[in-house]
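Bug #77: duplicate submission created two jobs. Keeping one. Sequence:
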Amino acid sequence: MSAVKTALIVGITGQDGAYLAHLLLGMGHRVVGTSRDAQMANISRLRRLGIDDAVELLSLAPNDFRSVLRVITMINPDEIYNLAGQTSVSLSFEQPVECMESIAGGALNLLEVIRYLDRPIRLFNAGSSECFGDTGQTPADERTPFRPCSPYGVAKAAAFWQVANYRQAYGLFACTGVMANHESPLRPRRFVTQKIIQSVKAIAAGGREKLFLGNLDIWRDWGWAPDYVRAMHTMLSLEEPSDYLIASGQTHSLREFVDAAFRMADLVADDWIEVSGELLRPTDLRFSSINPSKFMADAGWKASRGLYEIVERMFQDVLF
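Kept job's structure:
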């Protein structure tokens, strides 16, 4: 390996890609990022972090084997972070085929190119706690079976097993971080957490009358995005590859998130929210609880911020 490590971030323009690029640049890495069309890519998050001129941006279509082969051959990275693919659970019900192709197909192409080139490349694959489905009151751990409730969860589960298979069959240093929800001011508006934050701000400013939401009685483990990209790098720094759950270990309801956001504006949530049947999903994961103790023990990682601090930082637009 070269003295300066080269990291390839597939899907660099999203929340996680931008934070990860910032982290790796600070460690002295050469960072190359990809988007489906580099010329048209939305680099606003990279710009907000002040790193848009520090990363190299290339076009790559994860579901196109030749595209993946060309970029990896040209860059010859030490590490690859696969953060690409459809990211919305709601959208996956509307576009299930694209969801499977972009997530599972993209992961398979990366694995197959690494195997074909036979280079000592370390691969991190972004997994999701959506793979587990409804965990009930028992926190999921690395031994919990997958029972996904959405096309997104199904695709992430398929990618997880592809990574595990290539690690076992071909000896690749490839691992999946099965991540719980993680938020920041860099979240797009299509995610419910950012929708809530921005709507509360608009209501407080007198710009809108109601916040329309779907099911408020869902429970999630919400973490802080900068913690999670640190976990990604940590996983690739371990001596042996292994899959881990990455989460805060604390579960809260969406109603708690909403209440906390309205309190930031000195408002009472019940005065401003309205449940809309149009926003309900065909199937909804009601309760998701994650136990990250294995990763905490093996890697010394832990979440730095709880739900209320995350809501406060999102509301105040504090990036770190």
